[in-house]
Amino acid sequence: MEHILSLSYGKDSLACLGAIEALGWPLDRIVHAEVWATDTIPADLPPMMEFKSKADAIIKDRWGIKVEHVCATRNGKNMTFEKGFYTPVGRRGKPMFIGKPRGFAGTVYGNWCNRDLKIPALQIANKEKGIYYIGIAADEPNRFGQLSDTKKYPLVEAGWDEAYCRQWCEENDLLSPIYTTATRGGCWFCHNQGVGQLRLLRKNYPDLWALMLKWDEDSPVTFKADGHTVHDFDRRFQLEDEGFGAADQMKHYSL
Could you tell me the pLDDT band of residue 140, with boundaries at 50, 70 and 90? Predict the structure, then answer.
């Protein structure tokens, strides 16, 4: 039976490598579910993609294992966010994009990404039964699931909390840029990101921002569950660029 680490490249996930080593547990495979925005654009920003390549090289050199990057597929082709977003799911052929939860008011993107893009990719890669290592820190009891013979938490067993996981990653040159140059990790188009991250995306990656504006125009529901759209944020940031402060913005636009 294989021993498999599901790797996200976050600090806890990467620190599992050290905990597994310290515990003397076997490790046969390392699998990462790669998410793509389109057929040519990854869901991670360039700094994160560069870090993944760097981390893969370190892992291969130290642990002798090549990280497997897997992607969800449909009809033999890689599944992307854009393809899922434009999949009709409405009645009578009406294009209600998959971003809208069935039967509920929701956001443009929703949490279907994890269900349709990440989990299927890992299921494809892990067809055979094995023992899976999950990167949950020792000080996250609210995330503990039920331990079993095939699901183990190396960090919990080793007693490594989030702070120590970060320290281990720093010491081993495996700290993701999401902890140093960004406010959060995840896909650049995620509706859960805050205003600050959206502002940086618009400033630093105008091509990606333009793609989000296109999706926003095509969506039957809003980017945020509170009713705000990507275009709302675009207008806000434009006012900021023009020198309007928060009080002045209220005269033109509320967000």
Answer: confident
Paired tokens of 111? 């949490």
* Beta partners for residue 4, in sequence order: 29, 132
DSSP per-residue string spanning the chain: -EEEEE--SSHHHHHHHHHHHHHT----EEEEE--BSSSSSBSS-HHHHHHHHHHHHHHHHHH--PPEEE--EETTEE--HHHHHT-B-SGGG---BTTS-TTS---SSTTHHIIIIIHHHHHHHT-S-EEEE----TT-GGG----BTTEE-HHHHHT--HHHHHHHHHHTT---GGGTT-S--S-TT-TTS-HHHHHHHHHH-HHHHHHHHHHHHH-SS-SSTTS--HHHHHHHHHHHHTT--HHHHHHH---
Structure tokens at 75: 């009809």
Q: Quick: pLDDT tens for 29-82.
A: 999 999 999 999 999 999 999 999 999 999 999 999 999 998 888 777 888 988
- CA angle (235 as vertex; 232, 238 as ends), nearest 5: 150
d(CA 72, CA 31): 13
Its pTM stands at 0.81
d(CA 2, CA 203): 45
Is 8 in contact with 144 (CB distance < 8 Å)? no
Residue 202 token pair: 């618009």
* Cβ pair 29, 68 in contact under 8 A: yes
